[in-house]
Amino acid sequence: MNFDLTDDQEMMREMFARFLDENSSTARVRAAAPSGFDALLWKGLAEQGALSIRVPETAGGLGLGLVDATVLMEEAGRTLASGPLAEGLVAARLLAQFGADPALLDRVLSGDAVVTLAFHDVAEQPRQWIAGGCVAEAVVARNGDDIVLVAVPANARVAEDNLADTPLAELDLAAFPHTVLASGDAARATFAAGVEEWKLLISAALAGLGREALKLAAAYAGERKQFGQFIGQFQAISHPLADLICEVDGGKFLVWKAIRDIADGSPNAGAAVSIAAWWNADAAARAVAQALHTFGGYGLTTEYDIFLFNLRAKAWPLVLGDPQRLLDEAGRRLYAGETAGLPDAGDVPIDFDLGEDAKAIASEIHQFFADNVTPAMRAKFHYSWEGYDPELNRKLAAANLLYLGLPKDVGGRGLSPYAKIAAMDAFELERYNNPAAGVSQMVSLIIQRFGTDELKQDVLPQIMSGEVICSLGYSEPGSGSDVFAAQCRATPDGNGWRIDGTKMFTSGANLASYVLMLARTNTEVAKHKGLTMFIVPLKAEGVTIQPVHTFQDERTNITFYDNVRIPDSWRLGEVDGGVKTMSASLELEHGGGFAKYQRAMLDAGERLCREIVYRGKPLIEDASAQRRLARTNANVWVSELLAFRATWVLAEKKTNLAYGPMAKMYSSEVFLRDARDLLDLTAPLSLSKRKGAAEEINMFYRHAQGSTIYGGTSEVHRSMIAERGLGLPRTRA
């Protein structure tokens, strides 16, 4: 897996970034109005090699790949470059591919002439809105079976007063002289591939634009005071920005995914292009709107630059037409067999493959289930702790498949973060989920790092053999996600401790033998400094376990501790050092999120849409159903990509800007949203708990309700993202 550009690409990005910072400042962007074309910038970009990036070397270009072009476009978007750059890059490549007049191509590559692109068949739509139409000498277009170069007379290049002061013009392409560049199926496919390339280039520009707008908003929110506080401290300001940085980053990764899919020949590559274009048009529009809102009334004035981002975010993609049609297009490509001509991707350093070790562990897990899991065991499988099966737990431990992320020095499998993702996906494909293993491996690691010899000799072997499982005693009735507010007391008692108090949401306590407890041992210091970690036997005298049932068919517990006595040897780490002890569990953190459940839910939704008959046909053939399933696909992909990045930065020890919270928060929110939508889409059958896809959709809807709460609420994660990902001031006490 790799989220890094090559050294050459990084150098190119830095070169274009420096050039554009100097030559496409917002002052230059303003000065280019109303034509929206900066001739000096255009010439400078040409001198930097920008216009040659996608032109083959045989035609005098650089012959670079799609990733290289998107690197340029992201910087162009960030700086609002004034000119039809995405269209110009595609047009230049098409001129070379079709063997157009070399003299014209030379003038295009040197920046002395502008040639742009028409998106629609001239035979069907002669009058079209053309990006760069008021400055272009020629337009590459399709005219029926022909691909033509339309010469635009100087007197026809009339600037159109428009939303964002871009060089837009409406041209009657049928009225101007044209030259046939090529004809036939191959020519049309090449042109169509150019249009698909434009979708990716404009998507990259929108991702760069959206992220820069959010950065401007965050900077302003960190400087502007209201009611005596920086406005960035108000969650009503910071949390929407946190939501949108996830979506904008997700849009960038969707572009990368589409390019990777093209390179790999994936059957979903065409749909990935459509989704990337739709997503980035939508995400950028909402990002700039929220950014402007952050500036309040000042955002409406022309003295602040944010309005430029707002207008250009809408103007760039709309030249193609309504972006919602791209989602319809993705639906047809995913579910109706529509094909797309795709460009050559070139070299693609970005890689989402989990590796051979990942494939091997997935295969091993599937073979284990085939050999060891009985129908009776499968009947008990459940996404919650209630799916725990002691016999299967022991078998998994014996096969070294229970504690997959636990380091080998503790007796675990020691899988790489990437292989662990594949293993979790394999378990999901088997419809097996074991939250007990995740908690128990955390407890094992903490015992190994901080436990006494007694715990290592008496308790650790029981856990490692799969004979027992452990629960977590963090949350309390009055503290929720604020684990440092724990009031459950541990009081010195002779050579040991007396535990008194209550823990809430002690899931699995009715099945577990031990609970990992965070208890208050000092009330005279800051709350996070007065906590100590213990192992407490759940069968000890004074422990009461009371069930708490949820509408998700899931049991959790409230546990009471009344004068529970344990020896000091069951303490983990230093007294009042519970936070340090708890941090050992972070060694097991490798991203996160709900993508595997989202994918399973999507699969159930697709199956149900094939089963349901709507107006005499399977529901899957309905355009609205295809659109909604495509949107769920997009959310699944973004959830996976955000989780992959979170895993990658940890595995490769890269800078981590709250990428784990981003993956968890985003995936949980869209899991819930899509669960509602798929339940609606497949109604009324989805109301049933009938075995099969209907039961699954029903279950996923109920399961999704808790996803924004488990492991810290979305609000907690939004604050982390705002602070660490956007540099906003702290929003929590």
Automatic annotation (TrEMBL):
Keywords: FAD, Flavoprotein, Oxidoreductase. SUPFAM superfamilies: Acyl-CoA dehydrogenase C-terminal domain-like, Acyl-CoA dehydrogenase NM domain-like. This is Acyl-CoA dehydrogenase. Belongs to the acyl-CoA dehydrogenase family. Its cofactor is FAD. It holds the Pfam family Acyl-CoA_dh_M. It comes from the Bacteria. One of its GO terms (molecular function) is oxidoreductase activity, acting on the CH-CH group of donors. Residues 6-101, 356-467 form the Acyl-CoA dehydrogenase/oxidase N-terminal domain. GO terms for cellular component: plasma membrane. Residues 200-333, 600-725 form the Acyl-CoA dehydrogenase/oxidase C-terminal domain. Residues 472-550 form the Acyl-CoA oxidase/dehydrogenase middle domain. InterPro entries: Acyl-CoA_Oxase/DH_mid-dom, Acyl-CoA_Oxase/DH_mid-dom_sf, AcylCo_DH-like_C, AcylCo_DH/oxidase_C, AcylCoA_DH/ox_N, AcylCoA_DH/ox_N_sf, AcylCoA_DH/oxidase_NM_dom_sf, Mycobact_Acyl-CoA_DH. PANTHER family: ACYL-COA DEHYDROGENASE, ACYL-COA DEHYDROGENASE FADE29. The keyword Oxidoreductase applies.
